[in-house]
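[INFO] parsing input record for ABC transporter, substrate-binding protein, family 5
[DEBUG] input buffer:
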Amino acid sequence: MNKKVVTLAGVALTAMSLAACGNSGKNKASGDLNVTLKANPVTLDPAKTIETPSTSMQVQSFEGLLKYDKNNKVVLGEAASQPTVTNDGKTWTFNLKKGLKWSNGDEVTAQDYVASMRHWADPKTKSQAADKVSNLENYDQVAKGSAPTSSLGVKALGKYKVQFNFAKKQPTVNVRNNFAANLKPVNHKVLAKEGSKYGSSSSKAVYNGPFKVTNWNGGSDDEWSYVKNEHYYGKKNVHMKKVNVQVTKDNNTAQNLFKSGKVQETAVTADYVKGNKGNKELHTSLMATQYYLYFNGQNELTKNENFRQAVNYAFNNNQLAKKVLQDGSVGATGWVPEGDMKNPKTGEDFAKEAGHLQKQNKQKAQSYWKAAQKDLGKKQMTLNLLADNTDDQKQVAEYLQSTLQKQFKGLKVEVTTLPHAQHVSRDFAGKFELNLTDWNSSVPDASDFLSLLKTGNKVNFTNNTDEKLDNLLNEANDGTKSASERYKLLQQANKQVHTNADGVPMYTAAQAHLVSKHVTGLNYGPFNTVAQYQYAQWKK
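[DEBUG] output buffer:
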């Protein structure tokens, strides 16, 4: 879960009353922008970030060599110019802008990028997001501890030049998006000083982005601020002096805060979206986020292939999206969502070209369920379903629970909902039986979704192994294939994912926000799903 995403749905206030009131923009005089977040961030360490709340904090406070502009296009960040690409596409060399500073006044240097990449790959870091640097030369040996971090494919060529050496040729669009979305530097002095505590609170990090984080004391903290970073090279284009954030898990509370003008941006629920399609303060869009139902490969029932296939055929994803979520989310037709990757020859959408691979079939579901009962010698079975404790995820979990219990006589499904951070912890510990979770991609490439089930991937929560899938993905990503050859291999891998049913794709998530009519500059895109407050400003 590169970035665990909070989506929409739940119980809202009366839509008409909210729409009528609008947002007063009471903070205009002070210059402060007040916003909400639906879950608690976990860390300020980019190397340990896998979920959206932490990403949201870091988007405001860190900047890489490339970044997203206000229209979600990849542009120059700390790089002085576009990279020089050599060695048949395997070597990328960047020159840094001169005069870059951290929020404590230290100079940003090439060594800060080197230290960051090594920190990601170092097995001592225990990074759950190390796949973002896994394409660098010698990564496998470094990650296993059999080679020093200094052998990783990144080096400083002087104080202001940094070079990245990839083990294989990479698709250009993937590399650029990875630099923009993920590969941020760390102040190597602060990292050395704080060690494993780096990023555990706002005082345990320094910042090179538009804002510095203040008054965040760790994962249970519900309030903090982004304060304009006076050392940021682009500070003259940052209009908000301060952004105050509060974690607001209750939808009614968040919408009341917006209605009263106490916040100027907040995520909203499906009920609100349904009743307010003409509201000019409402902004909706699909994300590059797919929700899945995972099976624990170590559990007696969920590792049973007949049971997995039974569940695989049980759901009507369109019904889930249109009748339960009702927020613009789309029922999944396959493992890879629509809008992710395109055929390099024809421009056809990857998911559309693959066809409808995920279909409800009640007859097949019943047949597989009876086979599972026979395999296990049981007529009555109980399972636990793990989900986030947000309103939308509770509703989806209830739909899954109801559907499974109605279709499979003798099956009882219990639901456990937890705060986001606790859910993530149990994901990685494998402490679940059925697991409703998601993946938010930062690159327009089907491999990013398909690799979720690859052997050895830290976010392969099923712990299952599919050798055929592994081989197809390895061949597609070996750096020797043309774009068309690679695309065909990924389509084959996509079909293979559906063969074993290690997980069930459920829906592509939408996001909706209320943004005050007094604020401009906030945009949301499929691969950059959090607001960038550096572009926000009060309307004149």
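[INFO] Confidence is low (pLDDT under 50) at residues 1-21.
[INFO] shutting down worker
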